[in-house]
Design brief:
Elements lengths: L3 H30 L6 H19 L2 H11 L6 H18 L3 H24 L2 H20 L7 H9 L5 H24 L14 H14 L7 E5 L5 E5 L2 E6 L6 H19 L16 H15 L3 H4 L3 H7 L1 H4 L4 H8 L16 H17 L7 H13 L25 H20 L2 H6 L3 H11 L9 H9 L6 H14 L3
Parallel strand pairs: 1-3
Antiparallel strand pairs: 2-3
Helix pairs in contact: 1-2, 2-5, 3-4, 5-6, 8-16, 8-22, 9-10, 10-11, 11-18, 16-17, 16-18, 18-22
The structure holds zinc ion.
Length: about 500
């Protein structure tokens, strides 16, 4: 049994590290939302210093040996052992990196983010290219310090989605390709659905007013959540009662901000609903990127794009925009928000073609790390893949390779979890429908009934179990891609009368 003195050191360490993490997180949210760009050099240097301080605390050898002892201590309860194991694993993978290099990398990532932003604004990939090269070098080097037997990119995939690797993702994307490409071809050849009314002029101030109503409908409570505006919507959190989301109002697109709001609130609700007992601990986080994305996409697509979801909201939307929507029925509105057309920008993509956007990124990342794809001319490689899979090509880098923020800080291995998460959602929905008449409760405006089901079967566990165990507990089986493919086939066959 671990001594009470060591246990106290462990608890103090958790409190100290969580304090630093909270500060760094708030600084990062501030940088991405409201901080004036002029102060970035001053702020970045101090942020890197704080990250270095946290690094020293996190990699304390004494704590590492306490964690090693705790993770195998049979006298400890399951929650504590699991938390110790996760902290131990994280510490093991961080402490192998020399501190100076870690601090330098934090500064590089900040500079790289700024370069990406400038490159995107100026539509010029060459501004970002040298940074991307450096970021990849740093990632390669850091992973090499782990001395793992695993392939480099497999390690990255495993960091975002423990248990996943190229072999499993290859099989997943092959299944998607086999059934989705013929379906997309049929949809593209089918009669077009009228959706031009979504792209009229919609005053952003009125959109914001409606979004406040939507946030209330979603039970996104100001007591624990706050929504801001950014170029690239995201969600971040410091604890279960402080979750931040952002959205972006697009003047000539009414669906964009509404759907991104529903999506981000899905992420925030997951964090908020995790068991209180885990607050401040590593168990109080979503278990994996894929699981997180499954919750945001379940909100956005499986609920947020249905007639039942909008049945009580739509009259309010019509009232907000009478000129644009008075002659558009609820059914016409829902058909329009589900239109599938191959497009350039991932975050604006429809549900059916979305996984192909991810496949492009997955193949590029795989190629960057096995040496078959080079950073030079990557914008052209990108365009070629879009031509091949989606039949479209960007003439502006901001709508091509520069559209996503992820590679600016070296988040390689993250993208595939977006497609995987969408597939998890289908399996959760299948299980939810066994217990709840989803259409009926939504028609009564009872979104909370669906949220409570998710809280009970998915959210509350946080990191207590790995993703596959959560799937088994909630649905009775391990991950099965067929729920996702069946769902897409059924939905789009019906929508397009195929
Ligand atoms: Zn998301």
């Amino acid at each position: 049994m671990i001594s009470s003195e060591k246990l106290q050191k462990y608890k103090d360490w958790i409190f100290r590290t969580s304090a630093y993490r909270m500060a760094l997180n708030i600084i990062s949210i501030d940088k991405m939302t409201v901080a004036p760009a002029g102060g970035s050099a001053y702020r970045d240097a101090r942020t890197a210093f704080l990250a270095g301080e946290l690094f020293t605390i996190e990699t304390d050898p004494e704590i590492f040996s306490i964690l090693a002892e705790m993770k195998d201590d049979e006298d400890l309860d399951g929650d504590t052992k699991r938390a110790a194991y996760l902290y131990w694993k994280g510490t093991r993978d961080t402490m192998c990196i020399p501190k100076e290099e870690f601090v330098e990398a934090a500064e590089l990532m900040d500079a790289s983010y700024d370069a990406w932003l400038k490159a995107k604004k100026e539509d010029d990939y060459s501004i970002f290219e040298p940074y991307l090269k450096k970021v990849i070098e740093v990632r390669r080097k850091f992973y090499s310090y782990r001395n793992s037997d695993m392939d480099l990119y497999d390690q990255m995939l495993d960091d975002y989605e423990p248990g996943m690797n190229r072999e499993k993702y290859d099989a997943f994307f092959a299944a998607l390709k086999e059934r989705l490409i013929p379906l997309i071809q049929k949809v593209t050849a089918a009669k077009r659905i009228e959706d031009s009314f979504l792209y009229q002029n919609y005053d952003p101030a009125l959109q914001k007013q409606f979004t406040d109503h939507l946030l209330a409908y979603l039970h996104f409570d100001p007591e624990w959540g706050y929504q801001n505006e950014t170029e690239h919507p995201f969600t971040s959190w410091t604890c279960e009662n402080d979750c931040r989301t952002t959205t972006k109002y697009v003047e000539n697109n009414i669906a964009s901000a509404m759907l991104s709001t529903i999506h981000e609130v899905g992420h925030a609700t997951y964090e908020h609903d995790i068991d209180d007992a885990y607050d401040g601990m590593i168990l109080s986080e979503g278990v994996s990127s894929g699981m997180h994305e499954s919750q945001s996409r379940l909100f956005e697509n499986y609920l947020g794009r249905t007639e039942a979801f909008w049945s009580t909201l739509y009259p309010k939307l019509q009232e907000t925009f009478p000129e644009q929507l008075k002659d558009v029925s609820l059914k016409e509105f829902i058909d329009a928000v589900n239109v599938s057309v191959p497009s350039l920008v991932r975050t604006e993509a429809d549900e059916l073609t979305y996984p192909l956007h991810i496949m492009v990124r997955y193949e590029i990342e795989k190629g960057l790390f096995d040496g078959t794809i080079s950073v030079e001319g990557l914008d052209q490689t990108w365009n070629a893949k879009y031509r091949e899979y989606l039949g479209v090509e960007a003439d502006k880098a901001s709508e091509g390779i520069l559209q996503d923020v992820h590679w600016s800080d070296g988040s390689f291995g993250y993208f595939p979890t977006y497609a995987l998460g969408s597939a998890f959602s289908a399996q959760f929905m299948h299980a939810m429908r066994r217990d709840i008449d989803v259409e009926s409760v939504l028609k009564e405006g009872r979104f909370d009934v669906c949220v409570n089901w998710l809280k009970e079967h998915v959210h509350r566990y946080g990191c207590r179990y790995d993703a596959d165990e959560v799937l088994r507990r909630a649905t009775g089986e391990s991950f099965n891609v067929n729920y996702y493919l069946d769902y897409l086939e059924e939905k789009y066959t019906k929508l397009y009368h195929l």
